[in-house]
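To illustrate this point, what follows is a protein record of this kind.

___
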Amino acid sequence: MKTRADLFRYIGLDVTPHSLTGHYELDGRPFSETVTFEGVGELTTPAVRAVAELWYLLAGLSYYKAGAAKRVDLGATHVGVHGRKLFDVALRDGLAEFAYRNELFLDDVEIVGGEEAEQYAPFADSSRVLTPFGGGIDSVVTVTELNVELEQSLFIVSPDTGRFEPLEATAGVTGLPIVRARRQLDPQILSGDDNFFNGHVPVTAMVTLLAVVAGVASGRGGVVMSNEHSASVPNILWYDHEINHQWSKSWVAEELIAAAVRERVGDEFVVASYLRDRSELWVAQVFAKQSRFHHVFRSCNRAFTQANGRRAANWCGQCDKCLFINLILAPFVSRAALLDIFASEPLAEPGLQDQLRALVGVGLDHKPFECVGDPDESAVALQRVSELEEWADVAYLVELATLTSPDRDFEELLQSQGPSRVPAHWLR
């Protein structure tokens, strides 16, 4: 039986002109992670180091989770009021799925140490932005819908094992310049250990902060994320605690990150999600018109595994993500065109019926632990697909659609879904 560690320590952050290396200890066992940047200015300025410390704080959670220590010592790390709040919530809510799957309770974790954060005023050109790019429909829509008068560059993070081919191909279609970061995880985490706890970490929040580092280092004025409205919807309630697989894409995480960044570099640098007030259905409608991306984009997670030899060359057609993307595109893209994209038909696959039921909210008691829309979005998409003549031969789509009862209808989901922090000059 695995035993929780006693102490996780933040040892220090090394900053060179082009790389960051975070050092940690778990009950005396050392871990290090290095990120190397391409296409940015030097990282050694005070302002860049200040935001790099926020990345260092959250990156530590990848190593903290190995032992789920009962005590965390932030040491001499500059944390600040908002940085401390971000770290505290990221540990408890960003690791909530990890805790749920390992039957751990992190409410008892004691966090000590840390120093005040200083604020710097770097040069920030509000007309130049950096857009983290993952190669899926969300980031494609952000890139293509952003105000064309902005000078936009993509930000791509790759593992030490090499670049992701589908992501690179999709980025190539945009024609935009690319700023890069290569992430080298500690090999102890990659190889695993029978005594380690394993599970999901808030990786999108880490990527967001790496983009902030790159943005500040290159004089840009903002980071444009692609996290839509339903990313804030939890998967399940566990002992009165919301478990959200997409916590680091949520509205709460966005506000926490923005406040922590503002504490370090002031109001001139903006971190916001372009899609925050939009549903996945709206995103699918816009993406359906972007035909030049249809044969290169990829949202199947099996194409993005750390191990190069295990990456899927095509859509697997079996996972929840493949099924969800197939579902939300079906109201806007013909069945024949979808088959051409996926080389399979997840919606018509009898073996995926239980997964489809879970997506639309009539199967499991929670939506899948994946980056998929909320049950309302999936149910509304299914209802629309069930009305289409080209899908009439898939009888169970009609049967399942009659069992759904979403709170919103098709047209409502194509309208604004709530608040957004996007500045006006990012919009067309």
Q: What stands out?
A: Residues 7-122+178-273 form one domain. The first strand starts at residue 7 and ends at 15.
